């Protein structure tokens, strides 16, 4: 199985530096063999927040791209925490919040943008995970999507 950095390169992804937190909280926490990463909002490769509400000004396809950008942010944060992505044994769980208009119900389709990237980058064995995907009436910075992660890592 190719390593994670090689897989990311094949996908045309260069991880950005991990962003600074927008509040008074830890951006990540390592507890034994668990790495918890605080929610990462949808930030595009140019450093701009992807904003808007799904079901209004943001399409499902744009939401999937926003979720993909969240996954890239999660991997960037993991690299900052671990220094080496190969310490990841598996992605355990994603928790996703979608900035959604009333009546919007395609949250799982949107979050597939993140899940698909994680499986592509980590491989099916390490990247297949459990998750939740819920709608929210607003998110920080009016982000379209915010996702948190729980990884199992090598100690």
UniProtKB/TrEMBL annotation:
Residues 6-143 form the Endoribonuclease L-PSP/chorismate mutase-like domain. It comes from the Bacteria. Transmembrane segments: none annotated. This is Endoribonuclease L-PSP. It comes from Pelagimonas phthalicica.
